[in-house]
Amino acid sequence: MTRAEKDYLGRVAAIGCVLCKRLGYGETPAEIHHVREGQGMAQRAENWLAVPLCPEHHRGKTGIHGNRMALKQVKADEVDLLAWTIEELNS
């Protein structure tokens, strides 16, 4: 991982969970999720395709690696999460 990628991922994590914000929960600490929409199962996404998610929305049962209920609530997919992340970075 390059220095630029580390810096970028730090900025992404500092945003807080983008899904919590959309659900009206406010700011919550986040961990990095790599967007894999449209990629094969064994392939890892680039660090530039990362979104900040809280532990529940990342690894929890309602999260992106669970049954995705939180995504269904806001009618979104991983690409939407990435777009919201980019908006936050540019605001």
Automatic annotation (TrEMBL):
Pfam family, one: RecA_dep_nuc
Record-linked InterPro entries: RecA_dep_nuc
Name of the molecule in the record: DUF968 domain-containing protein
Native source species: Ralstonia mannitolilytica
Source species taxonomy: Bacteria, Pseudomonadati, Pseudomonadota, Betaproteobacteria, Burkholderiales
